[in-house]
């Protein structure tokens, strides 16, 4: 119990420092800043594996004393570290797919770069609470009903096939049932009101005018509501879409991590560190997502490999030994690296063809 309290307190402290200190004032996050923060979050996530090793090896706080429901092994320092790192890489790679959708959402709602970090901050805070609940329920179900793992495996394989053959790049957020329901239940302003998600009718709608490149809007917005009525802003709709998107992606990623381990602490911590770096990763890659044309194929293959591993876990354990997750980690990294390399190669070929035409 104490290890859970300590870890959650650490996460809340990092989030408080993020919003209250480093991003206290709204500003456009540059690629350089985003890359620096991405390096910080990745280093933090990888460094945590050192704690995982010693905690499970020494059975601190009773970690590593229970049988893992997925493979039937009791996790020592080495196996726990392998499972944590594999889960972290899988969740981190799947979060990249989330970036494609978030970029589309921000483009559709025309969210100024000035306020995108705030939307992502609250979106990720909600995602952490949501995934924590889903992981708790999933771990309980797997412990009670082991056959659910096979359902998860089939689901992951079907999801991979869907990612390979169905295109969902041009989804209209206005057709999203959650957005439609939100518009029906709450009045929404026509324009942004700074970084506010909720305002009262008659409040001025404006951007930080001193920020270079910030669009200008009228000083006053006449809302079709009585003065003082609480209204949602378009920024709130963007937040609703980000939260909805994470729920959809969580349905894919939570079974993926349970294919690797059923240990709730390993599942939760690997998920948290992967999600915490999503904001900085978005600002680092948002302008480049379209260049990685084969990355989506790689992510689909990762899901398929994880799903097959879940179905053949017992056989793999006998054939490769208790450290078979280490081989799985190597395969996943190889698939992702191949996707990035193929995308970069295709981009260079396209640029060379364009250059030759001139």
List keywords for this structure.
358 residues; 2% strand
**Broad structural category:** mainly alpha
Which shape, going by the Cα principal axes? globular
Q: Which bin fits the share of residues in helices?
A: 55-70%
pLDDT < 50 stretches = 206-223
Give, in order, the helices and strands. Answer: HHHHHHEEHHHHHH
What report would you give on this structure?
- The protein is mainly α.
- It has a domain at 27-170 and 248-293.
- 68% of the residues lie in helices and 2% in strands.
- The protein is built from 12 helices and 2 strands; from the N terminus they run ααααααββαααααα.
- The chain has helices at 2-22, 31-57, 77-108, 113-144, 148-165, 177-185, 234-258, 264-276, 278-285, 295-311, 313-320, 324-357; strands at residues 198-200, 230-232.
- The protein has a two-stranded antiparallel ribbon with strand order 1-2.
- The longest helix has 34 residues, at 324-357.
- The model is unreliable at 206-223 (pLDDT under 50).
Would you summarize the structure shown here?
With 358 residues, the chain is mostly helical.
Question: What's the layout of helices and strands?
Answer:
Layout: H1 2-22, H2 31-57, H3 77-108, H4 113-144, H5 148-165, H6 177-185, E1 198-200, E2 230-232, H7 234-258, H8 264-276, H9 278-285, H10 295-311, H11 313-320, H12 324-357
Helix pairs in contact: 2-3, 2-8, 2-9, 3-7, 3-8, 3-9, 3-10, 3-12, 4-7, 4-8, 5-7, 5-10, 6-7, 10-12
